[in-house]
Amino acid sequence: MSFKAARLVAEALLDASLLVAGQVELGAYTGVSAVTAFTSAGGPPALFIVPLAVAGLLVGLVGIVVERGLLRFVYDRDESFQLLLTFALVLMMEDVIRMTWGTAPRSTGGLYLVYGQARLLDATVPVYNLIVIAASLLIALAIGWLLTRTAFGRIIRASADNREMAEALGVDMGRLYVRVFTLGTVLGTLGGALVIPSTAAMSEMGIELIVEAFAVVVIGGLGSMRGAFVGALVVGVLRALAIAVYPELEMLVIYLIVIVVLLLRPRGLFGSAA
Amino acid sequence: MRGRAVLAAVALAALGLPWVTPAYHVLLMLPFMAYAVVLLGLNLLFGHAGLVSFGHALFIGIGAYTGAFLTTHTPVRSLEVILVGAAVLGAAAAALVGALCVRYVKIYFGMLTLAFGMLFYTFLLKFYRLTGGDEGMRVLRPSLLGLSLDAMPKTQYLAGPYYYYSLAVLALATLVMWRIVHSPFGLCLRTTRDNPAKAEALGLGVTRYRWYAFVISGVYAAVGGALLGPPTGNVDPTLAYWTQSGNIVFMTLLGGFASFFGPVLGAFVFIFLQDTVMSVVVYWRLIFGALLAVIVIFAPGGLMGLFGRNRAVEVSRT
Fold it and tell me: Residue A254 contacts by C-beta under 8 Å, 6 or more apart in sequence?
């Protein structure tokens, strides 16, 4: 559930999807450090979400450097080269994370339950989860609003549909790309930071998330917000069911659904004709 | 003719290597030759069909685990049987996975193969009764051509008979791939890469050709994977992890995917460079990541593109 923000990124930025794996990890580790620094400096535990979110947002700005410094050189190449470049970045980022934070998983300790727990329909849910769900919904709505209701969003969609025409009409592609890309990386690192209190920062969390996000997108259908939502629901519920019934199947069941969907409805449940 | 002279010199050097270099470097040649087999197949898909797979570690894993399973759970020790078994299983898995993946191209193909690779990785991790989970499985020393060599010291076995066996497999794989690439089939495959619409109009089933290429590359990856197990005597799920898939694409690009021997050169440079860098600093990924970025941006033709004759290296298709 808390992965929703990152899932959105995966949909918006499938091109840089491997990179998002690195971003999520980067956000997670930076978040842990920020929270640790905050509490050891005497900050009230109840406010830990503030440095967490700020750290997630700020470290995402590394996207500007990555886009201007590397990615912009390969836009006119085959997409496969872009994928490879993002793989190079993930390799580097993993070692930077290792150099900075070591190899052991990092967590924020007991802060997860600092907001207490709430009872919902006979189930106990940590309030933090509810906060993250609310934040994800808010971010999702904000992105939806940005893409469909603002001039910036219209320019993004127009450029995605027909880059040459948009350029001919006066859109500065360089500036547009760096903005969209940075927006994506910021969402990735923010997502990584927000998920941290409920789990621990590990070097494998990113790629698992990306594969899962891809499953969501494939099940829902590319380019459909409604599809992404339904896909996320399907994946979440199936995982929970698998864990309850036969834990070995947890991840496998998701891939099986992906395969079935691809066989029966190659465009996904809500995909439009591509 | 210069190409033939170089090839003959390389072949002679490979044959004479165990007599002139220390055993350590001979042992490093073993993973190189295994990866070279994998890459010959991968490049049929990457260089000739224009599809970048981020999930071929799946087939490496299938090959490696076939060897481990056969030697530990059955009386089979023969490497020939293991290689054939790996090839058959690799073909079967690639036929299934490929049938789904080749309907897509570019980024979606890459992501879908990645998903299948991770599916297999998860399977290896979770079904520990069959696969040994994250500890993996042992690979008992296989017999070569019916000769049981259990009495031989390990280094002597690996640097001697096993080395030459791997070399023979690599030579055979190279020969077969050379024929495939230079056959009408290879030509058709490149047509489907360069102009799928035209290929379709000419009556070539584009997805069918891509599927053939996928299956062949799966067989090669499984055979290469089966060769990877015996030198370490152990296989574990990291063989099938997605970074492994990324690394083999890296090797292909490093050597140059537009050239037939480029990927082989890439595997060689990757293995020995990795060994050198790792002996100096543990953060080899940082250095290799930077190297890969430089290659992608400045030298998409790879080493062959830089140092080889100026062949028509076609890289940027928009």
Answer: A212, A215, A235, A238, A239
